[in-house]
Amino acid sequence: MSISTNRLFREYKTLSTNPPDGIQAGPVNEDDMYLWEALIEGPIGTPYEGGVFAAELKFPKDYPLSPPTMRFVGGGVWHPNVYPNGTVCISILHPPGDDPNHYEHASERWSPIQSVEKILISVMSMLAEPNDESPANVEAAKMWRERRSEYERKVRGEVRKGLGL
Amino acid sequence: MEPTFDIPDSTDWLSTPLTLLAPLESSLRCQVCKDFFDNPVITSCSHTFCSLCIRRCLSTEGKCPTCRSSDQELKLRRNWAVQELVEGFNLARPSLLQLARRPAEGDRVTVDGGGQDAEHPAFKKRKIEQEDGTQTGAGEGIRTRSQRRGVVRQIETPPIEIVDDDIQDDAYIPDDGLVACPVCQRRMKNEAVFRHLDTCTGSRAETRPAAFGSLLTASRRPFQEVTEKPPDRLPHIHYSILKDTVLRKKLKDLGIPNWGSRALLERRHKEWMNLWNANCDSKTPKRKTELLRELDTWERTQGGMSTTTPDPSNSVMRKDFDSAGWSADYNTDFKQLIASARKKNDAEVRSTIPGASQAEPDELSSTLIVEPPTEAQTQIDRCSERLGWSGKGARGADSFEP
């Protein structure tokens, strides 16, 4: 077993025996530890409350030296830091190499001591507090900044739609 | 499913009354590989990792994974104390865990009594009150060390009945502030034990049954430096000053494979250097053949024999991905897939709606040809922008005007 699969197995076990509130994650298929799916509950007190968001995580072979990528599946998520195709843009998922815009502190970036659990917790708090300095979805960022109530209405609508209501 | 849960980890304690051992165990584990420290070394910023883990991190990034201060391989120092802690804990772990799990099973499973009836007449029961206040208070100190998890959940346990068998009841511990020598059972001051152990004859050892993880096997040897001369460390190479042929020869001289591209040669050499130098930190160094086997595992998973490119971009395609070339190269494959899909579709249509028209499958195939590449391509563009692989820092943010 290689270093990366070994570590992913451990993280899987930790996450299944002691999952953080509102988060579930594990490999899609245990034969391939490099593709995970995760479920994140919308944080309480935000327009995402009540929603359950599915995402997939793809791990590189040299994990944990390099970070995984994360993408919301099934309709994506209307959020300033989520690309329209669902890809999550958050500093913890970026390797601490070059940062063209210098808006991210190196301390927030990926490091081998980070983990799936920490990524998912960060994404959960990202849902609650968007970072509009580095928008991945410009439209959502504009709406969040200028027309907050419309933004919240739209998000709530999507949450309801996602739940099939 | 099963093999996954055979991996021991710190959460094993959470289902037992000894939940506070979880943070203790997680502080004995390397933050990079999540396994117990293996040949722990300490960085100049005072963080401890497995020798191999930190060498791999430093050779890719040159920074401590915990605090990101720059560090060099040469400054790593062995951390014997941590190594002994890990060894000691690992010796005690199985029996400790077994003991911790026993109360839960004690109601139904006969632990060691064979044919005894359900009442366990031989056992005495003792009630332990869980005092929440003391639990959390005692946890604080350990928890700060455990950077891995913010909050350790306290499993709510009802008052627990611990089933003691008679053997253990014998092991009455007087409350005199002294500790017993694990070998001869003589009681002495805590500080004196280790010194005493070096000379202990262990005369009483046989009289005590080793019911709880025999410490006899773990009897502490005075720590000594490796007596033989340790293997020489491999020096760093500045790859840029070496020509391909020289580097290839160097790899050959080291006895490791020297095939593949320049980049692969450098990565393989780096991995070998890390494996080798980490092995030099070991108290019981492995043989070279074993290291070669580990390099072979690396070769198959991340090196030249891995199925995908080891590049982190393997999960997403590059922006300059040649989609035209790709579709030309795999044209026949695509056509075959389309043909088989059409056949399958035909068969399904026939089986459900007898005499369905032929026009539908044709439409389907034309969308199949056009759609996937374009959709994929837009995704690729976005992702590569996000990760800055275009090299120009073309991020979504650039186009954003407040």
Which value, in Å, is the CA radius of gyration of chain A?
16 Å
Structural class by helix and strand composition of chain B: mainly alpha
Low-confidence stretches of chain B: 109-157, 162-171, 205-211, 222-226, 309-315, 355-402
Mean pLDDT of chain A: 88
Q: Multimeric state of these chains? A: heterodimer
Label the overall shape of chain A.
globular
Strand line-up of the largest beta sheet of chain A? 1-2-3-4
Instruction: Name the largest protein-protein interface in this structure.
Output: A-B, 55 and 55 residues
Number of strands of chain B: 7
Query: What is the typical, i.e. mean, pLDDT of chain B?
Result: 69
Family (chain A): Belongs to the ubiquitin-conjugating enzyme family.
InterPro entries (chain A): Ub_conjugating_enzyme, UBC, UBQ-conjugating_AS, UBQ-conjugating_enzyme/RWD
Pfam family, one (chain A): UQ_con
Keywords (chain A): ATP-binding, Nucleotide-binding, Transferase, Ubl conjugation pathway
Task: List the topology elements.
The complex is a heterodimer of chains A (165) and B (402).
Chain A: H1 3-17, E1 23-29, E2 32-41, E3 52-58, E4 69-72, H2 116-128, H3 138-146, H4 148-162
Antiparallel strand pairs in A: 1-2, 2-3, 3-4
Helix pairs in contact in A: 3-4
Chain B: H1 21-27, E1 40-42, E2 48-50, H2 51-60, E3 77-78, H3 80-106, E4 124-128, H4 132-145, E5 160-164, H5 166-170, E6 179-180, E7 187-188, H6 192-199, H7 244-254, H8 262-280, H9 288-301, H10 323-329, H11 331-352, H12 359-387
Antiparallel strand pairs in B: 1-2, 1-3, 4-5, 6-7
Helix pairs in contact in B: 2-8, 7-8, 8-9, 11-12
